Amino acid sequence: MPLKRYHIMLTLALLIVVGLFASGFLIHPVVRYQTHRTARHFYEALTAGDYALAFEQLAYYDHYSDLAPSISKAMARELWIERLAALQEAEVYLVDMASLEIYFDDGYPVGKAYVTIMDHGTAVTAVQQIHFAERAGTWLVQNFSTNSDTSTESIAYIDQGLSGLITPVAEIP
Fold first, then answer.
1. Domains of the chain with CATH codes
2. Nearest-angstrom CA–CA distance, 39 and 43
3. Interacting residues of 86 by C-beta distance below 8 A, sequence separation 6+
4. Most distant pair of Cα atoms in the chain: their distance
5. pTM of structure
6. Residue 57, burial from CB neighbour count under 10 angstroms (0-12, 13-18, 19+)
7. Which residue in 25, 90, 114, 124 could disulfide with 98, CB within 3.0 to 4.6 Å?
8. How does pLDDT run across 88-139, given as a tens digit for each residue?
């Protein structure tokens, strides 16, 4: 009887270890797919000028990124769209996204997009780092950090404009 109990415990322990090991291989591909899809839809809507649709892929916040926002989704959408429209009017906007890669940094999904930004009539190619946040089981884009050979103030405005941090429109040079 004790030998049978030992076999059962060993089998259960083995199943738990195999389950944990297998889940590690299954979770990353699912998260990679979700984040890639979200980022791709975000950029497609953004380059098409459909800011309302792009907003649906955004994890917005108003104080701290890890706390629930205190403003309504409608108000956040309005402020975010207003901010992007102001950037467009100032001739600082995203024109195209050429390729998108998703990888993991310490188990956290991060994206890298090769983008073309219009900077007062001049097209600038840059690499944009994408940070994601999980909201209600869905991965959404949250923040951006653009690396460009021609680092200008306009590039910083793109990062701030696309960011999920909802603030009123700032003056754009």
1. 2-162 (3.10.450.100)
2. 6
3. 161, 169, 172
4. 81
5. 0.81
6. buried
7. 114
8. 998 999 999 999 999 998 888 999 999 999 988 889 889 999 999 998 889 9
